[in-house]
Structure formats: structure tokens, C-alpha cells
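task queued by scheduler; priority normal; single chain, no ligands, no partner chains; default sampling; output format set to C-alpha cells
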Amino acid sequence: MKLSVVLADENGDYFFDDTLKPLGAAGGELWELVPDDLIPLPPGSDLFFLPGRRAVGINAISGEVEVVAEEGLLPVAAILPQGYTRLLLPAYLGGEEAPHLPLFGYTALAALGEDLYVAALPTDDQVKWNPLSYNTPDLKELVKARIKVQPENRILRHLAHCALNYHCLTAQNIFYRRWEGGIPTSPTCNAQCLGCISKQPAGCCQAPQGRIKFQPTVEEIVEIARPHLETEEAIISFGQGCEGEPLLAWRTIAGAIREIRKETDQGTININSNAGLPNAVEALVRAGLDSARVSLFSADPESYQVYHRPQNYSFSQVAESVEIMLQAGVFVSLNLLVFPGFTDSRRQMEALFDFLRTHPVHMVQLRNLNIDPDWLHKQIDISTGEALGVATFIKEMKGEFPGISIGNFSRAVR
């Protein structure tokens, strides 16, 4: 069986063109897709056609790259479920009038025979994050019953919206009473990340989630966190997609941690953060923080600055915070935002590996960066050297740092 390009018409119906061999993109390069790059389309994936763009492929006879010129035929990309890491972006020719794509992790797609395949790797155990375990028929009743018990809790009402409308998995886990549950705490942020999913500037694109609009109290946090932590393999996480930077609410979070730990020593208390405020990090560590996940697009200070656009902090403060937590015995993960052609360039790999040698974190969580590739190219120099391939990057990282866990999901450490 041979590989074919996947195309869609403007109604969203897709079909295969076996006169073209499929391509993927990495930075500014086009890579021919080969079976070793591909896995069957995972359950829970979505397909998106890409408006205003033209598919490209390799002519099966001439071997030349060819643009699909026929009007109404569009390139198709896959959006992967959690637990899979994208190896290549979809290959296409964009136009000046092409509409801005929503904030999703677009992945190269191909057909092998009659089946769909994607350029990706499974990189974590999906047991707790299997899409079939979420959005179940009883979810609405679970939400309703929980709110009935604590009707005045504003966080709970906010999480209900996230669970039912945004289909947020960590919000749903609060109502399922299991695993990692998110508790948003901060309506503001001290960074303006290009791919922020809760707040985007006018003229860019619509953020897929609305940010929390209030500052929760210690009591509201404890009311949700304490019973959740008493469930099996429980984690509560501050710092969700529907909020800003939780370190800006560090006094409230520290107070909540102390109150929680007066009543239970069960479960893991985690923070997802940009780690730009070392003094706040130190206060949370003293209060009893168990684990942290630090967002990182690049360990190169210049690239970090351009993507994260930090306000009143720099990458040096991030490194300081990581060191504070490591010295205190906090389980530290990097939330590495992976973008093919950038993350796997030699310059970026060397910057990351140098950081890991100096700050040996416990885990690197790979996160497919959700962003319009064309728009990111306009904002930042993606071409930071030859791309080695995301699979090669992962292999080299595992070889260089055998003591660091590589995956996609936070771990319970209590």
C-alpha cells in the first residue's frame, strides 16, 4: 500500500489523492512522510480542513513538489488527543488572505491504503486521559449534584461552565471526584504568551476559553480541594487554561495549602506556572507545595522573551524558581511547548539540555503547541537551525537524561 495526500472539499468531506505523496512541515522545511513517521489516527482525534490554504505533495511520477491548484480542495490536518506528541505540521501553501486558524495543535495527516495516519508518537499512558472516560452521560447530573451541596462556591460554578462548555478534563475530574482536578485562582497574568488559550489581543484570534473573572477566597479553594485530595491518585492543580498566572494569587494559595494540610496529608498539591516570581514560589514551598509544572517554549532567553512576553520578570527568575523548588524537594516538571522545526533544532536542543544539566528537573511534559503555524512564523524566528526531527529530539533527550521522566501528564507524588 502506498501513502496518499488527504484533501477536503469546502463541505468538510475528505478523500485521498494517490497521485501525490504526502508531506509534513518542520519550521520552513518540507519533509516527505514515510511509514516510520506515522501511526494510525488515534481514537479521539479530530480532523480539520485548513481554509485559504492549498495542499502540497510530491508528484508520484515526477518526484517534484506540486501544489493542488483546483479550487475548493483544501489541506486537512489532525488534532490529536492528549498522550500523543506531534512530529510534523501539515504541509500547505498559505496565502496573504488566509484566515487565522484557531488555537489547536495541527498535525500532518496522510492516508495509507484506505486508513488515516498521523505524524505522531504515543508518549504517555492514556489510561486516566482516555476521551471515553470524559463527557459521559451522567456528567450534567454530577455537576448539578455537586453545586447543590456547595451552591455559594464561585469556583465550583466556574468549573461547571468549564466542564460542560469547554469540555475541560481537569474541571470534569472535580465532579467525577478523581485524578487531577483544576482549581483556577487568578484572573490576571504577568505574561502575554503568543499561544495563550484564555486571553488573546484584538485582531489575533479568539481565545478558546474565558478567563476566571474573580479572585477566589481561601475558604472557596479549601471547600473544593480537601474532599478531592482524599480520592485515589488525587491531584489538585492551580494554574489552568481558564485563568492567568496563579503566582499572582500566591498569598491566597499559600493560605489554602496550609488550611488543607491541617486537615489531610493525602493527595498532591500542584501548581502550573510560568515560575516568574521566585519569592512567591518560595512562599508556596514553605506552605507545603508538592509539585510544579513550569511552562516553557524555549530555554534560550531570547526566544523565551519573544514567545512568553514576560512582564517584570525574565528567564533568569524562572531558573531561580526551579532551583528553589528542586532544593526543597518539590517534584518539578517542565511543560515543554513542542513546535516541530523549532523545538528540535540543534540550537534549541542545546539550550534546553544545558538548562537540564544545571537544573535537573524530575520530568519533561511534552505539550503540542496549539497555534496557527503561519502566525507563529510571523511573530518569532522559527528557523533556528536545521531541524533534527521531534522523534530524534525525544530520543536524544532520553539518552542524555535517563533520570528524567518524559511524558505528557502530571503525576501524583503522594
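post-processing summary
- Residues 250-263 form the longest helix (14 residues).
- DSSP finds eleven helices and 22 strands in the chain.
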